[in-house]
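Protein modeling request. Please complete all fields; requests missing the sequence field cannot be processed.
Requester role: graduate student
Desired output: 3D structure, token encoding
Chains: 1
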Amino acid sequence: EVQLVESGGGLVQAGGSLRLSCAVSGFTLDEYAIGWFRQAPGKGREGISSISSGHGRTYYRDSVKGRFTVSSDNAKNTVYLQMNSLKPEDTAVYYCAASESVRWFKMVATDFGSWGQGTQVTVSS
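Delivered output (125 residues):
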């Protein structure tokens, strides 16, 4: 059974940092790309970053480039999202998701078949 479990969310002041973790089971990170999405209240879900260990590639949405870093530890079957210089507009529920699609870097939610439960990130001004 494919499972993804996020952790590491919380409340932080603007300019601060958080590191989200996505622990996966039921598959290895060589088989799937992992994407990070977020959904703010009243807004749609947006893809912000993804990583394919098998292809050695990463993707970032423009709004997080230079501030967020995605990485993976294949031995631990865990993907991380290091978030620095956080802004109030980064406040959202953050989800990780797994994709077998060759289009994983386009961050289309329907290309990601398995999702975690989400973790809340709140950035105060």
